[in-house]
Design a protein that fits this description.
elongated, Immunoglobulin-like, about 15% helix, 2 domains, four-stranded antiparallel beta sheet
């Protein structure tokens, strides 16, 4: 844009002074174009990255599906199941394996990959300044003064002296400044999917079983004072076909309350494979004579015979 300022004025004794100021400043056109180019470049980068991730994920899915199909159609001779047989004492008596042709996918998990994270970060900076300025000032002064001389004295005329002063000033300023830089950070993480897998073959165990059956709960009173609470527990030992196993000693362990045999003379399983126990909680007065806590409490009872065991939570 150019601006012109013109201002003539009169000086003394008929002198004329003319001044002209010209200013021309150019706008920084490169800044807008740089910013626009940076934005478009980053947009194309995001679009290209997204398309690359989508194409790669599609190929990964296709490859995983092809691998799963190949594993499912490939038959191999493997152990389909393994059976462990325990005797009446809970000891391993026999182990049998059953082989058959099964798909390979039962033993080898196909791995499916996925992009779990793709990040792009871009920073762009652009600045520009371009200026041009010029100034011109011209001053012209004319002065006329009467003079004296011999010629004028003789002929009756006066001498006129004329003096002209001219000054010119030119100034120009040009400034150009440009600055632009940027950087882009990209990171991606490719991981196998955790929600796809094939369970391993079944393990079959045949042997005796231990069952814990909770019985009657009784309060032990001393007049109107609750002194203790007991629970009757029945342990049942049976074979895989449901028949009773008699004459076996069961290892008992409790956490939270002591136990005892219901009948001190019956410490082995009876003809029905049963063994009676009694759990007991004693309520003692707290310090300062405060009433004891008689609320129901959970007690863990564990029964074990060889490698056969069972744990139950009882509340009384």
């Amino acid at each position: 844009m150019g601006n012109t300022l013109s201002s003539p004025f009169q000086a003394g004794n008929g002198a004329k002074v003319g001044s002209q100021l010209l200013i021309d400043t150019a706008s920084p056109k490169g800044l807008a174009s740089n910013l626009q180019s940076a934005g478009m470049s980053f947009g194309r980068l995001v679009a290209s990255t997204g398309q690359a991730v989508a194409d790669t994920q599609m190929r990964l899915n296709t490859t995983g599906a092809e691998m799963a199909s190949a594993l499912a159609t490939t038959q191999v001779e493997v152990i389909a199941a393994q059976e462990s047989i325990y005797d009446d004492d809970g000891h391993l008596h026999e182990a049998r394996t059953f082989t058959r042709k099964l798909p390979l996918v039962n033993f080898i998990d196909p791995v499916f990959y996925e992009w779990t994270a793709v990040r792009l970060q871009g920073e762009f900076y652009a600045s520009g300044f371009s200026g041009s300025a010029s100034a011109t000032a011209t001053t012209q002064t004319q002065t006329k003064q009467p003079g004296s001389g011999a010629f004028g004295f003789i002929f009756g005329a006066n001498k006129v002296d004329t003096q002209t002063n001219t000054s010119t000033v030119n100034a120009g300023v040009t400034t150009t400044q440009e600055r632009s830089f940027g950087h882009v950070r990209a990171s991606a993480l490719l991981q196998p999917k955790r929600d796809i897998g094939v369970p391993p073959p079944r393990q079959v165990v045949r042997g005796p079983s231990l069952n814990v059956v909770a019985g009657e709960i009784k309060d032990v009173m001393d007049g109107a004072v609750l002194q203790a609470r007991t629970m009757a527990v029945l342990i049942e030992l049976r074979r895989a076909d449901g028949s009773a196993i008699a004459g076996k000693a069961i290892a008992i362990d409790t956490d939270g309350a002591p136990w005892s045999y219901t009948d001190d003379t019956a410490v082995l399983t009876d003809a029905q494979g049963r063994l009676g126990l009694t759990l007991r909680r004693d309520f003692l007065a707290a310090a300062g004579g405060a009433a004891p806590d008689t609320a129901p409490k959970d007690v863990i009872l564990s029964a074990r015979l060889g490698l056969v065991s069972n744990s139950s939570s009882l509340s009384f």
